[in-house]
Every structure is written in structure tokens, then in C-alpha cells.
């Protein structure tokens, strides 16, 4: 809804976005967590996505009282995120303290994007937190350029995690570090043709949600032909009621597809070149 250009006060989905903002703000706890650790066994996922959403809302919020409420919540959420980081620089499904310092790639990426969204919106983010997260992603890289699921479980490279790590590294300001070219090469070989039939990897929509961001950042020479293939596939798989099916559930997959289809509108700071 935000990707379409609506805000909490203007546009077709203003009411929906405003209600979602109210809901997430109501879930902000005193320690900065946005969510409920008693009912969500993977609460850092929700926390990261909530930070990202609220930071994008803040950038377009004109009401002073609501801006102050968002700023207070996001400042606390950044502090929680910093304290939840593991000794290796990543994040797990729960805080480092609650999860015995376990971390893995997909949750780490969610936190980095959320933190970048906050920084874009003017919320202070400690540089050492981002630097440690970057080092964590580097530590998960294999010889083929791809990224393993976790620094605690190094193994075969995973296309989804590699694409998401690239998007997160861009968000962290690393566009051409020594680790990036091999990651780009791995992703282009593995994902640019939308996944060959002989390649099996899970979470297609999760993968391309992030890889679309990566290719878009490469410029129109790569993006435009890739976009045409990607959009043709997505449109061709849409159901008659407007939704899409896939792993996790229809709401999740539909949201991922709509974000991808609106990638090059460039309305949100987190997705801009």
C-alpha cells in the first residue's frame, strides 16, 4: 500500500495505513520491542518489518503529534534491536539473550533493512551495530560467492539469503566492497533468469522480493529486461480474485508481488536508487 504512493493521510489506502500504524504503535513495549514475545516465538521478524514500515510512514507524516509518537517508538525500537544483536553481529529469531546468542541470515537482513529505514527517517542508528551486521554477512560467504543460512551452520550457499544479503548490504551502504562482486555474480547466475527449472530453492517470492531490489539498483540496462520477465511471470500467475498463491500464505505472497510490481515507482526511500 505504501509502495503505491499512499500515506497515512493521503491516497487510496490512507485509512488502511493509518489503522496499521495505530496497531503497530499499540504493540510497542517499554523495552522497544514491537510485538509480543509471549505469543510470537520469532518476534524479531515482526520487529524488523514493523521498524521498516513505521520508518517509511514517518517520512511522509505531517502531523506533529503523530510524528513525535513515531519518533519515540522508533528510537526505542532501534535501541532494542542493538541490544538483541548477537556477539557475531547477526540476529536470531529472538534476542541474543533469549536465544543463546543464535543468529541466522533472514532475520539479520530484516533488522538491517529496518535500521536503514529508521536512519533514512532521521532516527539515530549506532554505526557499530551496522558495521557488525556487515561483518556477520561477510562471515557467512562461501567460496562460490553465495551466503550460508547461518554463521553457526555454514553449508551450501542459499540463493534467497544471498539475494537478501545483497539488498541489506546496499541498505548498509556497501555497494562495491570486496565481498559484493562475488555475491552479485552468484545471484546473476542463479536468479537472473528467474530460477532455472533444474534449480530447487524455496521461498521464490521472498527471494525475488529482495533480488528485484538488487537488480533495480544496478540501473536500467539490467533492470528493464529483468523487470519484463519478472512482471510477466507475476501477472501470469495472478488468480481471478486478484491474489496469488505460494509458500506461507496468499496474503504474504500477494504483498510480496505487489511490492515487486511497484519497485520502480520509487516512492519509498528504502527502495530508491
Notable features of this structure?
10 helices, mainly alpha, 273 residues, globular
What does this structure look like?
- The protein is 55% helix and 0% strand.
- It is mostly helical and 273 residues long.
- The protein has two domains: 1-125, no CATH class; 140-273, no CATH class.
- Helix 6 packs across helix 7 (180-191) and helix 8 packs parallel to helix 10.
- It is globular.
- The two termini are 20 Å apart.
What topology emerges from the helices and strands here?
Layout: H1 14-26, H2 43-60, H3 64-84, H4 105-120, H5 127-139, H6 159-171, H7 180-191, H8 204-217, H9 220-236, H10 250-261
Helix pairs in contact: 2-3, 2-4, 4-6, 6-7, 6-8, 8-9, 8-10
Amino acid at each position: 500500500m505504501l509502495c503505491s504512493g499512499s500515506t497515512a493521510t493521503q491516497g487510496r489506502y490512507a485509512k488502511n495505513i493509518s489503522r496499521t500504524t495505530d496497531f503497530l504503535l499499540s504493540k510497542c513495549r517499554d523495552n522497544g520491542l514491537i510485538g509480543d514475545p509471549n505469543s510470537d516465538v520469532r518476534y524479531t521478524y515482526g520487529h524488523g518489518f514493523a521498524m521498516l514500515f513505521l520508518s517509511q510512514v514517518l517520512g511522509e507524516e505531517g502531523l506533529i503529534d503523530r510524528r513525535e509518537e513515531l519518533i519515540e517508538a522508533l528510537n526505542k525500537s532501534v535501541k532494542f534491536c542493538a541490544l538483541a544483536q548477537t556477539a557475531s553481529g547477526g540476529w536470531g529469531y529472538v534476542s541474543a539473550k533469549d536465544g543463546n546468542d543464535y543468529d541466522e541470515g533472514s532475520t539479520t537482513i530484516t533488522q538491517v533493512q529496518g535500521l536503514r529505514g529508521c536512519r533514512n527517517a532521521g532516527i539515530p542508528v549506532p554505526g557499530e551495530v551496522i558495521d557488525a551486521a556487515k561483518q556477520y554477512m561477510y562471515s557467512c560467504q562461501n567460496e562460490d560467492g553465495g551466503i550460508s543460512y547461518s554463521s553457526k551452520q555454514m553449508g551450501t550457499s542459499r540463493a534467497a539469503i544471498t539475494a537478501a544479503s545483497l539488498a541489506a548490504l546496499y541498505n548498509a551502504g556497501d555497494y562495491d566492497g570486496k565481498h559484493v562482486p562475488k555475491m552479485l555474480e552468484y545471484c546473476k547466475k542463479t536468479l537472473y533468469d528467474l530460477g532455472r527449472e533444474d534449480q530447487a530453492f524455496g521461498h521464490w517470492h521472498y527471494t525475488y522480493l529482495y533480488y528485484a531490489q538488487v537488480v533495480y539498483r544496478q540501473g536500467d540496462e539490467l533492470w528493464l529486461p529483468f523487470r519484463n520477465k519478472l512482471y510477466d511471470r507475476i501477472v501470469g500467475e495472478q488468480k481471478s480474485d486478484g491474489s496469488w498463491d505460494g509458500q506461507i500464505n496468499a496474503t504474504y505472497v500477494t504483498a510480496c508481488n505487489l511490492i515487486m510490481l511497484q519497485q520502480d515507482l520509487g516512492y519509498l526511500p528504502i527502495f530508491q536508487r
